[in-house]
What we know:
alpha+beta
Amino acid sequence: MKTISLGKPLLALDLTLHSGQSFHWDPEGDGWLGAMGDTPVYVEQIQGELFVNREARAAATSYLALDHPLEHIESTFPKDPVTQEALSFCRGMRILRQPKWEALATFITSSMKQVAHIAQISQTLRKRYGRELFLEGRTLYAYPTPEALAALQESDLRACALGYRAAHLLGAARLVASGEVNLESIAQMPDAEAQQALRRLPGVGEKVANCALLFGFERLRAFPVDVWIERVLRERYFPKEGKVTATMIRAFCAKAFGPYGGYAQQYLFHHARLTWKKG
DNA sequence: CTCCAGGTTCCGG
DNA sequence: CCGGAACATGGA
């Protein structure tokens, strides 16, 4: 594989590609093979130096968010022991800049699913309905467009093991494909307004909307609260006794984690998911 | 076998 | 605003 160097950015590549943001990266040689939007990419990191196939330079710089001032971002995290523990575990992890529809759609399919199964759904959808991409004899697949999915029947998607999520994904695809919901317009809105606009789509509640905003719309303050984050918050940030409501959690997260709350959230999520011990 | 997973939606208090 | 139930599927 012929590659070019992208220098030595602060980046934990392997961690970043397997932190539950994207779900389609396959091991290949010393690196990874996958699609960044419509660009087929091989990416590897050797002793801190980042390499990609030549045609992927621009796509990789954007997708890996090498323009995020990561050292500064990590310095804005709160100094409490829980966040700092997650930081030392995940240092160098970046929030990927994924295509808007891809981020939104993959998280519509994520509800009540383990990461491994979200990956399986993503791969099936890509192979059956995504555009073929070629890289040195390998075939990769882009995430299917809203138009491609909008043309299907719910039964087609159920056949991809989406279960009840099939109707959600199909409904969302049709609203986006028809132009009734315009993701580029949403990208121009302030955070709160953008969240409300996304929640007009079926299968998009507060959590999925925040995932889409964080991973696809460059809203680095968006703070998705899933079962893992809620577990950490309840165990480590709130007193054991007493009720903790969703409203309280929302208010706390908006205040406590700063302008890059979404980054802190992703570090907390990944750390919790990989180190949590029962009991 | 049971339990749970990067939730959303709908319905009564 | 809050809690509960239904919703599919597969890995642990």
